[in-house]
Amino acid sequence: MLEFGIVNILFNNPLRAVALLMAIGVALIVPSLMAQSKRKSLLNSDPEVVYLEEVFEKELKLKVLKAAPVFANKDAGAKLGTLVAGQEAEVVAITDKAYRVRGKGKNGGLAGWVGTWAFEMPAEDFEKNMKAFYKRQMKVNKLIEEGMVVLGMTMREVGLVLGEPTKTSIRQTADGQVGRWEFIVMEEIRNYATHVDPHTGQTYRTLVSVTQQEKEKTVVEFKDSHAVAIEESTNKHGNVRVILPRVVCHW
Question: Which end of the chain is more exposed for a tag (fewer CB within 10 A), N or C?
Answer without folding.
Answer: N
